[in-house]
């Protein structure tokens, strides 16, 4: 290598880093504060209802000044939309990870058991509020917001279809898979109304009861 080429090489900029650029400290802090607001909003929307919850209530629950939520969201309605979007994104990601961990050799029943258990934890788990909020506050969304969340929900539920179709082929699921999906989600989501975490059933036991209802097991 000649002296001129060495100098040119030394002067050239380092290769660009692949992937997303790292967030600055300020961006990370803002992201964390936004997440805290959404968690506080989800808890209050579930316990008090959307109409009875003010942005002042949410700010106080998140340890912020009363006007701080408007730095992150333009309105309470936008916050409700974001609660549902963030919730669906999180559970879709954890569900996808669960299915990858199961692998291709898992039976249809094993897949459905894992999916039901995961969804019940989402619906009645101690830190999961967004599914009940979706059930009770869906009408508070604008039509455009409902379409956004419906796309996420449809993609999440579509991941159940391979297991349901396999069970149907094997004779363990008598209902049509697409109808069974709707009935199963209706039943599981309604558990938010009646399930008591301090009651006689654990989530594992509740999962097994649900499977006995949905599919025939030899």
How is the secondary structure organized here?
Elements: H1 3-11, H2 25-48, H3 55-61, H4 69-72, H5 76-102, H6 108-124, H7 130-137, H8 143-158, H9 161-169, H10 177-194, H11 203-214
Question: What key attributes describe this structure?
Answer:
11 helices, Tetracycline Repressor, domain 2, about 220 residues, disordered N terminus, about 70% helix, mainly alpha
Structural summary, described in words:
This protein is an all-alpha fold and 218 residues long. It has a domain at 77-214: Tetracycline Repressor, domain 2 (Orthogonal Bundle), CATH 1.10.357.10. Helix content is 69%, strand content 0%. It is built from eleven helices and no strands. Helix 5 (76-102) crosses helix 7 (130-137), helix 6 (108-124) packs across helix 9 and helix 9 packs across helix 10. The longest helix is centred in the middle third of the chain and has 27 residues, at 76-102. It is elongated and about 60 Å long. The relative contact order is 0.10. Residues 3-11 have low confidence and may be disordered.
Any guess at the CATH architecture of the domain at 77-214?
Orthogonal Bundle
**Tell me, what's the shape?**
elongated
Which oligomeric state applies? single chain
State the order of secondary-structure elements, H for helix, E for strand: HHHHHHHHHHH
Q: CA-to-CA gap between the ends?
A: 74 Å
In percent terms, what proportion of residues is strand? under 5%
Average predicted confidence as pLDDT: 88
- Using the coordinates above, name the CATH class of the domain at 77-214: Mainly Alpha
Number of helices: 11
Helix share, percent: 55-70%
Largest sheet: none
How much is the radius of gyration in Å? 23 Å
What fold name goes in the CATH topology slot of the domain at 77-214?
Tetracycline Repressor, domain 2
* Structural class by secondary-structure content: mainly alpha
Task: Name the poorly predicted regions.
Answer: 3-11
**By CATH's scheme, which homologous superfamily of the domain at 77-214 applies?**
Tetracycline Repressor, domain 2
